[in-house]
Specification:
Structural class: mainly alpha
Distance between the termini: 86 Å
Number of helices: 6
Radius of gyration: 24 Å
Number of domains: 1
Strand content: under 5%
Largest sheet: 2 strands, antiparallel
Shape: globular
Strand order of the largest sheet: 1-2
Helix content: 55-70%
Length: 222
């Protein structure tokens, strides 16, 4: 178990923690109009996709010999993870061909997450919210999937390679989980704000219906 590391690398990666808070203040005036059903469906997709992402990492470790003790039996996957606690592979440990393939896969992953946002809602404001919501659930599910299969990370202080595009992002596991959790909170609170706005507008909508109903009553009396 390593020591606590506050800053991620490169340094600009640390700015990501402010993105959920900034978006919440941007969204809070009008809120975001996304139904709970749409968010639930996006979360289901992201959870399944996160597990797929985790299995890809397991395959990658096994293929490059970075899963100690694994010789090909599926029953050994969790056992080797529990006994050896393999560290996340460094960029230098990956062959250039696999490194290039990983970068392409990361790009394809982002395309899939963006596509879900475009298919779910129509406005730019809500698409951003759905994309970030899906990304956050996918990220949390990814680490949960890794822990369920190979018992990694063993600690929130384990170092991880978050992304390779445009350069490798390095941070302890607690950092992406924090950013993803804040993102879920920001989207959830902004959606509640939207509900309050709708309630505030509902009396106005009701008052506008009175003039149209009044002539009808008068006509009935005549």
């Amino acid at each position: 178990m390593g020591h606590f590391q506050l800053l991620a690398q490169p340094l600009w990666v640390n700015m990501l923690v402010f993105v959920p808070m900034a978006l919440f203040f941007i969204w809070r005036s009008r809120g975001i109009q996304i139904s709970s059903k749409k968010l639930a469906v996006a979360a289901i997709f992201a959870t399944a996709f996160g597990f797929v992402e985790a299995t890809v990492v397991v395959y990658l470790r096994a293929a490059t010999g970075l899963l100690p003790g694994y010789t090909g039996a599926s029953s050994q996957i969790q056992q080797t993870g529990e006994t050896a606690h393999p560290e996340i592979p460094t960029v230098n440990q990956l062959p250039q061909a696999l490194l290039t393939l990983e970068m392409v896969r990361e790009g394809a992953t982002m395309v899939m997450l963006v596509s879900i946002a475009f298919l779910t809602v129509s406005s730019r404001r809500e698409r951003w919210a759905v994309f970030l919501w899906t990304f956050a659930v996918w990220d949390i599910s990814y680490y949960a999937g890794l822990w369920a299969t190979i018992r990694w990370p063993t600690s929130l202080k384990d170092l991880d390679i978050l992304f390779l595009i445009p350069v490798p992002w390095l941070a302890q596991v607690w950092y992406p989980l924090l950013v993803s959790s804040l993102t879920l909170v920001a989207v959830g609170l902004s959606r509640r704000k939207a509900g309050l706005v709708q309630l505030a507008l509902s009396p106005k909508a009701g008052s506008e219906s009175w003039p149209s109903s009044t002539p009808t009553l008068r006509n009935q009396r005549r």
